[in-house]
Amino acid sequence: MLVQPHLFIPGPTNIPEAVRMAMNLPMEDMRSPEFPKFTLPVFEDLKKVFKMKDGRVFIYPSSGTGAWESAITNTLAVGDKVLMSRFGQFSLLWVDMAERMGLKVVLCDEEWGTGVPLEKYADILAKDTAHEIKAVFATHNETATGVSSDIAGVRKALDAAKHPALLMVDGVSSVGSLDMRMGEWGVDCCVSGSQKGFMLPTGLGILAVSQKALDANKSLNGRMNRCFFSFEDMIKTNDLGYFPYTPATQLIRGLRTSLDLIQAEGIENIFTRHHRLASGVRAAIDAWGLKLVAKEPKWHSDTVSAIYVPEGVDAVQVLKTAFYRYNTSLGTGLNKLNGRVFRIGHLGALDEVMLGGALFAVEMALKDCGAAIKMGSGTGAAAEYFSKTSTRSATSRDAAHGLKAA
Hints:
By secondary structure, this protein is α/β, with parallel strands linked by helices. The protein has helices at 17-23, 35-50, 64-75, 89-100, 118-127, 151-160, 211-220, 231-238, 249-265, 267-288, 315-326, 352-368, 377-388, 392-400; strands spanning 6-8, 56-60, 81-86, 104-109, 133-139, 141-142, 147-148, 166-170, 189-193, 205-209, 291-292, 304-308, 328-332, 341-345.
């Protein structure tokens, strides 16, 4: 088939043509005297996306998992006590990494479909008067369950307890799509990756680090072994515009264009767009009579919706039908949700017409697999919602062309 496959998984996301073309260039000399003129502004513009007040951003040739590991090994020591919560596949994997790297995890094991338990965190931190807990971990957006958590609330719990622990945030499926106020919320390490809100292929682990975390790194004196992910090696070369090893130059060229697109749209407009698109998806889900994995509206994610299939319907067959019959990729249910859930990724370079196509494919695949849904119910509900709403950028565009504002 000549038609491009339709991709609606929660990462990798669709790549804008301008970004793809920016990466289509010959190999270049990453040691040339001209290279810093390109890289140094990239570091600075990345900080704007994270809304940082101080610190710096590191770019590793890795996935977000590499940035996870860098955050841990550069700021903590074997045997340190950390507070974590587990409520989905990716928060589960973060806990697993922490334990395998020798940290003592104080674990809040939560129901999948919920998020970071603020009251439990506040209670644990208040009781830790000796400040044995060295870091608090929070998954901003749990991609497996379509759950977003309140990072500002975690900061309030730390401040209320007057606790000095570092705040570590997994923002892999949130940064660049959901509001991340690293400086205002006192986040010390925020992990992201290139393949989601930054609209690039997988391959860059992006880690934003506060000055407090950099200071913690200096005080470690090598208590946790590290080499490839070392802050020290990166700082020495990054300050000059270079890297301690061969960087993924084409991906960074694409990142430059992605940052230009983000700046052109405006980060606040991007958050508004994602909320609007997610709301349209949720309108469709309601019309189908299906349920989200997210237990309450406060947990709803604006970047991915994890949806239970009706009883008697196999989610794996829904995914296969969408893929083979309708040329559409949807996200699978992970871990205990396999066979029970499918996911729609609605983040990155996306608009309502693209998303309408995803909902159209979902409707057909569900019907083909035996779901008793009315054809056109979900797509119609989403269309109704989209037609009555608009982002600020869309309104200004409408006005410029003499169209009636929604």
